[in-house]
Write a structure and sequence with these properties.
2 helices; mainly alpha
Length: about 45
């Protein structure tokens, strides 16, 4: 029971972090296109 919950929680956390990472990459690309290189670098610095 506990092992199943741990696996479920880890999968959920990983999915959330993956989505956040993709959002940061998209924001970085938008900032570069809109001529905000410093903002783009800021978003690229997030893991």
């Amino acid at each position: 029971m506990v092992k199943e919950m741990t696996e479920t929680n880890l999968r959920s956390a990983y999915a959330g972090e993956s989505q956040a990472h993709m959002r940061y990459l998209i924001y970085s690309e938008r900032a570069e296109k809109n001529k905000f290189p410093n903002v783009a670098r800021l978003f690229q610095s997030f893991p």
